[in-house]
Amino acid sequence: MRTPDSDEYVGKTIASKYRVEALIGEGGMGKVFRARQLSLDKVVVLKVLRHTLLSDERTVARFQREAKAASRLNHPNSISVLDFGQAEDGALFIAMEYVAGQDLHQILSREWPLNEGRVVRIVSQVLSALSDAHGAGVIHRDLKPENIMVEPRRNEPDFVKVLDFGIAKITDSTDDGPALTRAGFVCGTPEYMSPEQARGSQLDHRSDLYAVGVILYQLMTGLLPFESDSAVGFATKHLTEEPPPPTRRRPDARISPAMERLILRALSKNPADRPATAEAFKAELQAVDKERRRMDSAPRRSANSSAVLAPLPRKSAASPQSDVRDATLPGWGNEVTMEATVRALPGVLEPLPANADAMSATREQTDSLVHTQPGTGGGSGVAFFFKSLTILLVVAALGFFAYYFFMGAGSGGAQDLPYALPTNAPVPAGANNSAVGASPDVPLYDRAIVSGARNVERAQELAREGDKALQRADVGLAATKYREAFGRSGDPELALKLGEVYWHRQNQDEARGWWNRHLREQPASKARALIEQRLGGTVAQPTSP
Fold first, then answer.
1. Is 115 exposed, middle or buried, given 0-12, 13-18 or 19+ CB atoms closer than 10 A?
2. Exposed site from 139, 386, 483, 495, fewest CB < 10 Å?
3. Contact present, 220 and 246 (Cβ < 8 Å)
4. Helices within 226-274 (DSSP H only)
C-alpha cells in the first residue's frame, strides 16, 4: 500500500497558495489533503479531483456543484468552503476549513454505547446545519456518519461539522450545464437512502431527514435498521420493509420510548409522515431529551422493589419506574433459541444487593404494620390489637421460613424462595442415579446425563415453567426449574441461561461452571466471545469424545 507521504502532491504547492502536507483521505472522485495556506499560515483541507475524471463533463460539473452548494452555506455546523480553483497541472481543487476531530463513524465504532443525551446533542447540530442548507435550497443527499465530523471545543465537547456536499442538489438551480441526475438515476449511500431516493424519484428536504433517522437508529443501537450484503438489498429493504423497533434489535441498549417513537417516525416510508422540517425534527428531539432528563430526576424505586424482568420484559438499570419498557424478545416463546438467548440475556438481569434477604424481611415487616394516629377513631386499644396481631404474624412467618429452610433444604424447599439461587444441588429425582458421576460432591454442570435419564418432553415443560417464573421475578424458582430441566435433558442452552442468571446474581464460580458446560457442548456458540470477555480469557475448549 502507498504511504501518505508518497503521494505526488505531498510537499508541492498548488496554485501558488497551498503547500500540501499530507494525504488524509481518498475516494472515488479524488483525494483529500491536509495543506497550509501560505498567506495566512493556516491549516486547510484540499479536495483534488482525479486527473482521469477531468474529461468527464458530468463529474467535473458535480465537483463544481459541491463547491457552489457548500459556498451557499454560512452556518457554524456546516463546513466552510474557502476557495475553488485549478492547479498548475490542470487538476480542480476545493479548499475547505480543516476540522481536527474524528468522524461520527469512528466515534460509533470506538465509543458505543453512547448515552441518549450525547446523541441528542450531536444530532441536534446536524439538524441545525441541514435546516440552514435546506433554507438555502441545498439538499445533501448523502448524509451518513462518515460525513459528520465531531471535534471537542472549549465550550462544547462534541462540536459538529457536516461536510461532503459532493452529490448535493440545489433545488433552485438555473445552471445551463448538464443535468447531474437523470430520471430513475440513484445516487447516495444505500444504507442511508430514503425510499424515494432508492426509487430514483424526485427528492426534497425530507429525504435528508430520513437519513437522520437512520443515523439516530445507528447511534442508539450500534446497528443499522436493515442488514444486507448488497446495495440492491439495502435499497429493496428501505422500499419494502418496516424497520424493527430499536429496542427489539438491541434489548440491552437504553432507549427511551419517546426516542424510539421519533426514530420510527423519521423512518416512515411516506415523507409526509416524517417530521416536516429539520427545525421541527430538532425541536422534537430536544423535547425527547427534556422528557428523559425529567424522568431521570424523578424519585427512583428502591432496589428491592424493582422487578427482574428477564427474559421477556426489560428494565433499564437505574431508570425511574415510568421508564420501564416491555420489549418482547424474539425466540422466547415455547422454544428458546440460542440466538435469542445470546441477544437477550446480557443486561436484562440486575445484580441483587448483598443485603437483599435482610431488606426483604424488613419490607415484609414494615408492609404489615398498621399505623394509627392518636385520637382518630381506633384509639390505643385498636392500635394495641393490630400491633399484637402483626407481631404474631411476623413471628409465625419467621418460624415458617426457619422450618422451611432447615427442614426442607434436603428436598430443595429453600430453592423455591424468591432470589434463593440453588448451587450444586443434587440432580432431580429420577435422573440422579442415572447420571455419570452422580456423587453429591460433583456439581450438576459437571455430570453427564446418560440416555436412560433423559426425558426431553418433561425438560421442555420445566424450562417453560422456569421462563414463567423469571417473568414473575421469582429468580430462585426459575433457576431451580432450569436445573431440573437440565438434569433431564443436558440441553446446553439451559446451561447458557443458568450461567447468565448466576453471573448477574454475582455467583461467578457457579456461572463459570455452567458456561464451561455450555461451551464444551457448543464450542461454536455465539455466546463464546461474551463469556470469554466476562471471565477474562479462553474457556471450555471442546473435549474429545
1. exposed
2. 386
3. yes
4. 231-240, 246-249, 257-266
- Shared domain for 123 and 62, answered yes or no, is no
Cβ of 181: how many Cβ atoms within 10 Å?
A: 16
The SS3 of residue 35 is strand
Give dist(CA 127, CA 259) in Å, integer: 16
- Among candidates 168, 18, 170, 159, which has minimal Cα distance to 75? 159
Query: Distance between CA 67 and CA 283 in Å, rounded?
Result: 30
Catalytic residues: 142
C-alpha cell of residue 542: 471442546
Look at the block and give the residue holding cell 422466547: 332
CB 448 within 8 A of CB 439: no
Asked whether the CA dihedral 448, 451, 455, 457 is positive or negative, the reply is positive
Per residue in 7-62, pLDDT (tens digit) is: 789 999 999 999 999 998 887 778 999 999 999 999 999 999 888 888 888 888 87
Chain-centroid distance, C-alpha 514? 27
State the average pLDDT over residues 414-434.
45
Q: Mean pLDDT score of the chain, rounded to an integer?
A: 75
% residues pLDDT > 90 (the chain): 34
Q: What is the pLDDT of residue 169?
A: 63
Q: Which triple of cell numbers denotes residue 488?
A: 433431564
Evaluate whether residue 502 is within a structural domain.
Answer: no
State the residue range of the domain holding 91.
Answer: 4-97
